Amino acid sequence: MSSRMLDACLLSLALVLASCTQAPGDNASGSGDTAPDPALDEPSEEVPPAIAPAATGPDFTGFGPVPFGAEAQALKRALGGSLEEGATESPDACHYLFPQPRPEQGQGTTFMIEGGRFVRVDTDDPATTAPGGGRIGMSVDEVAALYPGLSASPHKYVEGAQSLRVTRDGSEAALLFETDAQGRVQEWRIGLPPQVDYVERCG
Question: Is the confidence at residue 167, as pLDDT, over 90?
């Protein structure tokens, strides 16, 4: 092969290699600009997660970040709209909000609303622990050991059963455990008086 032909081959090879090694951001026109990605320009909105009943629980101030006495709408927002409103003649009348889905047995954890305000939490869920450690299934003695100074009174309707009432300094709220005739806790509730003392719930 002549030197002239060799030079021509080498020049052709160099041009081919140059076209294959074009910089990654270059477009076909060689301007180096790339089309913007619309997804990158859109601001991301962080939506705070809803509070699941299983992830938190009531205490002597309220439920999660929602205090007793707050408007019912604040509780609905905190729980992510997963609440079903119980039957009521008016928004101000006493009624309950029920988290969805409802349990197959019992009521689960429910929220009393009266006067448009969140005033009480009731539960018959054995998996839910009361502030201070009380649970469904405990004996009167076990509850009394957890809450020194609680007051006990006969249940209004169940012979032999008791209502165990716990208060805490600095809080208006009260915690009540309801036992059966054998002295075992069947349900408990916490909230503001007078609503926390409604034995008939919303009657």
Answer: yes
